[in-house]
């Protein structure tokens, strides 16, 4: 019985100076093949200068159902933003 | 979960879409949303994959190296589009193997247009111009659809699609400015591809069962009839540039509504092709299933090689 090729997540840096960004996923037998396939699937028009491949099973993702306890604590901490602080009008460059 | 709770979740969900929020794979979604998206996205992916076959027919016989390189690149793009869409579809919890199985067993459909044969080189022109033209009209609104992975895949697809249409039109233009025989060939291709291209935009609104729900989920922004009208209105002037005649004696500019009136579409033909009785349905499936089965040993060998390499690496580490 044949075994299916695992799924890989593909990250591409479109040019130096920019971060790698998630482009999509594909199936490949191993990391080397995933790189080669990513080249053909996601960079046919010079969309990238560097590729990362990560086997999808190795990614741990947060659960959207827990978004409340994960992200809400940040909502009431407006003092982390510069606009929270009041300055006299005559102060410039701050 | 109780029915009451599910109903609440559904209301929250519909409200999110109405606010133009995107839905991502791990978000809660109604089962019907998941199923409808698997159906539409896989149908779309299958169409890209089967769509390689009619054009693949002409790669080895393209009239020049320039045409050959362009056609190869286009067919490779179709493969890429299929792959973007399959992986977007897999985020909904269906495996690639299940998707292929649905295509190969005939359970899943693909676009009816690919069940017509490509008998002359001019068909490469007509397909790029008309079929890709109709596809673009269908696809552009999907760049804003509610399911994130589908919308992102469609942005990539649409960016690449416009080269396809232009290369098709260029082929037609060249033929129309060539010898009388070449121009006849272009007219013949238009005659054969015009009506199937109109059908490709789907059944009339009265017959289209999924439209209302799809509009709500932004899987559809315009009805099939609106898309068809848009396609006709933009394509007729292009045929004029080519000096070709659209094969519809009822086609006439309607000053009052500011668009073209057109003749009756043969919907019996459409449903026959959808049900598997088009000129090339069997041939397409035979080629597709054959490629999958004959490639099995390659996939197995690649997997065995990868496992062996991994085992060797581990052995060295110990």
Automatic annotation (TrEMBL), chain A:
Xref: InterPro entries: PaaB, PaaB_sf
Source superkingdom: Bacteria
NCBIfam families reported in the protein's UniProt record: PA_CoA_Oxy2
Protein name stated in the entry: Phenylacetate-CoA oxygenase subunit PaaB
TrEMBL record, chain B:
Domain of life: Bacteria
GO molecular function: phenylacetyl-CoA 1,2-epoxidase activity
N-terminal signal peptide: none
GO biological process: phenylacetate catabolic process
Gene3D superfamilies: 1.20.1260.10
A UniProt-annotated Pfam family: PaaA_PaaC
GO cellular-component term (any): cytosol
Protein's name in the database: Phenylacetic acid degradation protein
Organism: Patiriisocius marinistellae
């Amino acid at each position: 019985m044949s075994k299916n090729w695992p799924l890989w997540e593909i990250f591409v840096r479109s040019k130096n100076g920019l971060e790698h960004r998630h482009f999509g996923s594909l199936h490949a037998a191993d990391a080397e093949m995933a790189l080669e396939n990513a080249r053909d699937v996601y960079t046919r028009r010079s969309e990238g200068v560097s590729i990362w491949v990560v086997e999808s099973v190795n990614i741990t993702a947060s659960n959207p159902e827990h978004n409340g306890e994960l992200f809400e604590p940040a909502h009431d901490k407006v003092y982390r933003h510069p606009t929270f602080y009041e300055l006299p009008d005559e102060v410039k460059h701050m | 979960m109780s029915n009451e709770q599910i109903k609440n979740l559904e209301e929250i969900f519909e409200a999110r879409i109405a606010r133009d929020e995107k839905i991502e794979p791990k978000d809660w979604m109604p089962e019907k949303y998941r199923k409808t998206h698997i159906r539409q996205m896989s149908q779309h992916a299958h169409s890209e994959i089967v769509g390689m076959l009619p054009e693949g027919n002409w790669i080895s016989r393209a009239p020049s190296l320039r045409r050959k390189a362009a056609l190869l690149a286009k067919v490779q793009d179709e493969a890429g589009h299929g792959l973007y869409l399959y992986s977007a579809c897999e985020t909904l919890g269906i495996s690639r193997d299940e998707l292929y199985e649905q295509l190969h067993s005939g359970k899943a459909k693909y676009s009816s247009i690919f069940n017509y044969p490509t008998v002359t080189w001019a068909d490469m022109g007509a397909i790029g111009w008309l079929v890709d033209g109709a596809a673009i009209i269908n696809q552009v609104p999907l760049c804003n659809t509610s399911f994130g992975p589908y919308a992102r895949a469609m942005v990539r697809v649409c960016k690449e699609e416009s080269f396809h249409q232009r290369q098709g039109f260029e082929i037609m233009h060249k033929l129309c400015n060539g010898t009388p025989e070449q121009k006849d060939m272009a007219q013949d291709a238009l005659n054969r591809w015009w009506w199937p291209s109109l059908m490709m935009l789907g059944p009339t609104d009265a017959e289209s069962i999924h439209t209302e729900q799809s509009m709500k989920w932004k899987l559809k922004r315009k009805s099939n009839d609106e898309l068809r009208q848009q396609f006709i209105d933009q394509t007729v002037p292009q045929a004029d540039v080519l000096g070709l005649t659209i094969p519809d004696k009822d086609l006439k500019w309607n000053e009052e509504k500011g668009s073209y009136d057109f003749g009756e579409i043969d919907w019996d033909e459409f449903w026959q092709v959808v049900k598997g009785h088009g000129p090339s349905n069997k041939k397409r499936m035979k080629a597709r299933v054959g490629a999958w089965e004959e490639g099995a040993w390659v996939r197995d060998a690649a997997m065995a090689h990868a496992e062996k390499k991994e085992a060797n690496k581990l052995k060295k580490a110990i």
